[in-house]
Each structure stands twice: as C-alpha cells, then as structure tokens.
C-alpha cells in the first residue's frame, strides 16, 4: 500500500467498526461486533478509546464488567479529510509517541467515519516520501507565523490517566515523552500517567 502526501487519512482507513458506550458489557459487545474489526468507545459525544475485536474477546474471557474497563492504549482523533502531509506537518505527529494502535477519523459532523491503524502513518513517515514544511516563524516566535492561536480542535489524543484513583480522560494536542504533561484532573494534581 502506497501512501501519497495528498491522500486523505480516510482513503487508507477501514469502515469495519462499531461505536459503543464504555459501559457496554463485553459479551454484548462481542455478540454485536460480528465481522467488524474495531469498537470505538464513545463517552457522551466524545471518542474515548478504540478496541480491537480481539481485545473485546479478551475482556469476555477476563470477566470484565464493561469494555471501558479494558486497559486500552491512548486514542488519537483526527478529521477524516486530513491528508498525510497535513497531519505529519503539525505537532499532532507527536501524538504517535503516545503509542496509539489506531487513529479514529471523524467527519465534518464529528461522527466516526473510519479507523486507521497508526502503523499506516508510521509507514508513510518511514517511506521517505514526506518532506516537512519549513518553519515560518519570524523574530517574535510563533506570533509571526500567521496562524490563529487558541485551543486546538483536531487532531487530538484522548489519554486515560492511569494514576491510582484518577481515571480522568485527558485531551492532548501534542505530546513530549521527555516532559509528560500534568493530568487534567481538577481535584488531584499529578503528572499524567500513561502506562499501568
């Protein structure tokens, strides 16, 4: 499979997924999955994680009460018409350092439209076909780069904090593994803990 810089992420994604709330019992999720490969977990209207069909089957065997109780990797969420070049030219590419297995794609109405294995983006980056855009910063730092400042909408990562007693889903626009961010839990100050 060859990825070109102008290809949308959606053009290399799978439509073989279902969306379910995290409170769904694993046996019910497994029965509903059928031939679908992924379950995208939605909490309210927010994508919180994505599971493989094998992970759902493992939850049944383990006797977990819900699919949301699984130790799922962080989840990266991106607009589906984003091209490989657009994604890789932003700080969003650092979200791959969180170790997501899949990237969840959202359409213009913020509905899940596909699931892309993160390995596809890594293959694109490793192919040598990507040339990063030059920095446009002026003498005053990023205030001269002609981009709008403010909160980032997408791409984002949803990361469950694994600090004992926390469990808050954090939303990150970029990630530096050498300097993990503070958890967004308002009642307990601590560094975001990703691994168990």
Can you give keywords for this protein?
3-stranded mixed sheet, single chain, CBS-domain, alpha/beta, 22% strand, 5-stranded mixed sheet, 196 residues
Structure notes:
It contains four helices and eight strands. With 196 residues, the protein is an alpha/beta fold. It has one domain: CBS-domain (Roll), CATH 3.10.580. Helix 1 runs antiparallel to helix 2.
Architecture blueprint of SSEs:
Elements: E1 17-21, H1 26-33, E2 38-43, E3 46-52, H2 53-62, E4 75-79, H3 84-88, E5 102-106, E6 112-117, H4 118-126, E7 156-160, E8 169-172
Parallel strand pairs: 1-2, 4-5
Antiparallel strand pairs: 2-3, 4-7, 5-6, 7-8
Short description:
The protein is α/β, with parallel strands linked by helices and 196 residues long.
Largest sheet report = 5 strands, mixed
CATH class, anyone?
Alpha Beta
Structural class, please?
Answer: alpha/beta
CATH architecture: Roll
Strand content: 15-25%
Number of helices: 4
By CATH, the topology is CBS-domain
Average pLDDT works out at 88
Spatial order of the strands forming the largest sheet:
6-5-4-7-8
Give the terminus-to-terminus CA distance. Answer: 34 Å
Number of domains: 1
Low-pLDDT parts are: 143-152
Shape label: globular
Q: In which range does the helix fraction lie? A: 10-25%
Q: Could you tell me the number of beta strands?
A: 8
Radius of gyration: 18 Å
């Amino acid at each position: 499979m060859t990825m070109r810089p102008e290809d949308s992420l959606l053009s290399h994604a799978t439509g073989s997924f279902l969306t379910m709330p995290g409170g769904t019992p694993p046996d019910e999720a497994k029965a509903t999955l059928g031939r679908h490969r992924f379950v995208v977990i939605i909490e309210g209207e927010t994508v919180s994680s994505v599971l493989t069909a094998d992970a759902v089957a493992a939850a049944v065997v383990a006797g977990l009460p819900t699919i949301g109780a699984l130790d799922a990797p962080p989840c990266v969420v991106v607009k589906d018409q984003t091209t490989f070049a657009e994604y890789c030219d932003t700080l969003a590419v650092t979200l791959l350092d969180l170790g997501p297995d899949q990237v969840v794609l959202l359409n213009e109405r913020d509905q899940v439209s596909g699931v892309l294995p993160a390995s596809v983006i890594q293959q694109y980056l490793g192919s040598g076909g990507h040339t990063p855009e030059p920095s446009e910063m002026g003498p005053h730092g990023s205030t001269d780069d002609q981009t709008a400042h403010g909160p980032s909408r997408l791409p984002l990562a949803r990361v469950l904090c694994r600090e004992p007693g926390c469990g808050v889903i954090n939303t990150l626009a970029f990630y530096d593994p050498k300097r993990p961010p503070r958890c967004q839990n308002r009642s307990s100050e601590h560094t975001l803990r990703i691994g168990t």
